[in-house]
Amino acid sequence: MSEAEGTVKLERDGKKLIIEIDRKDKMNGFTPMMFDGISKAFQELEDDPDLWVGLLFFAGEHTTAGLDLPKFFGPNAHVDEESDKDSNDRPDAFALRRICSKPIVMAVQGITYTVGIEMMLAADIVVASEDCRFCQLEPKRGLAVFGGAHVRYIQRAGWGNAMYHLMRADEFDASRALEIGFVQEVVSVGSQIARATELADEICQCSPIALQEIKRAAKVYLQEGEEKAFAEIDRMRQVTLSSEDAKEGMQSFIEKRKPSFEGK
Q: 86 to each of 43, 66, 89, 129, how far by Cα in Å?
């Protein structure tokens, strides 16, 4: 991936996969190659049992100004059809097709527009800097929302709040995002990545088997409703109680020490 098209940098830190998206000279405007790189990163996270959590953030002062529209819709736009076909089989950062089974923590800052919001709402935990500015501005460009905002806004904020922002394509700040459940913490400018890292480290203190079962069953609730989600309890019980992690959890309780989980 060329720097002009943006880069997706990966770093392993213990049980974390750190994913940094960098096209800061263009306010992290998204290109097709960036989408492909993020998709591959999520596949790596999903496939590696030694990786328990993804930590996602953007380089520079801003999350993203949204799509670099000419790269997608201009006369010279080019999307690699083979790569696009392959990406359909991978977990994606927008959770539109295949949901990543592992926890995703995301940090956002500054301008966080369109696809930045949609990616954020598909994450599990979001830390925002207090200078964040959010806007789902597609309708002001003659476009509908293509990354799931029509669903995610309603899930998080309810119909009225969702339409209040989607129908106006207005800009709102970090305190409003916290109020309607779009982000979970608002922190001082420059500390959002450090705080997101702390949260990812906390997640790594838990059994990955337990957390993946919780996330999977919670998604069943969103997609299929309460009855189906309650029916998942038996499976969660069987999967977790038969794990080595559960045995370690019980033993550590008896011995009054911190557990040392292995994801088995």
A: 11, 23, 6, 34
